[in-house]
Amino acid sequence: MAVPVFCNSCGAEPRKPTPRFCLTSCGHVLCELCLLKGKKDECLICKTACQTLILSKQTNPDIQALFMGVDVLCNKYSKQITQVSEFQEKHRKHLLSYYKQKAAKMEESLKKVTQQIQQIQCMKPPEKTAQLPFSSISRNSLSIPSRKQNGYSSYPLHSSHPSTSE
């Protein structure tokens, strides 16, 4: 249901033959007859300086929306919002798909490089360790006596303090 248009001065509504209606920049609606009664570039209602716009079917859609019913506007913008939302969702999916493909390519490249590094490491001769002056003596030729050979048992030593009862 559209908002009824009427002159804010005389209360006239559009009829056939109808006077044209104007919208002032201060937000008042005036019929053409009342507009002629006032001063030029001054609102007849609030007496402030203003400009006027003749209301017609050629009026800017944003201005026409001021006179539409809220239910009509809701339906119109609901459809628009749905279209925008669907477009943006589709765009996000394309972007996500692009990044997934890019990540998969990077993972594949990483696997190849890792395999190449492993192959290079396998082909590389082992590094030689610095020779120590005792290198001619093998570690096994040096014998370290065990505790038993020294006469020590492998049992832990206990304190040999005499008890007070002895």
Describe the structure.
By secondary structure, the protein is mainly alpha-helical. Helices cover 39% and strands 6% of the residues. It contains 3 helices and 3 strands; from the N terminus they run E-E-H-E-H-H. The protein has helices at 32-37, 61-64, 70-123; strands spanning 21-24, 29-31, 52-54. The model has no long low-confidence stretch (mean pLDDT 80).
Intertermini distance: 117 Å
Could you tell me the number of beta strands? 3
Reported for the largest beta sheet, the result is: 3 strands, antiparallel
Shape: rod-shaped
The total count of helices amounts to 3
Please give the radius of gyration in angstroms: 49 Å
Binned, the helix content reads: 25-40%
| CATH topology value of the largest domain | Herpes Virus-1
CATH class of the largest domain: Alpha Beta
Strand share of the residues? 5-15%
CATH architecture of the largest domain: 2-Layer Sandwich
Task: State the low-pLDDT regions, or none.
Answer: none
- What is the average per-residue confidence, as pLDDT, rounded to a whole number? 80
- The topology string of helices and strands comes to EEHEHH
Number of domains: 2
Order of strands across the biggest sheet? Answer: 2-1-3
Structure classification: mainly alpha
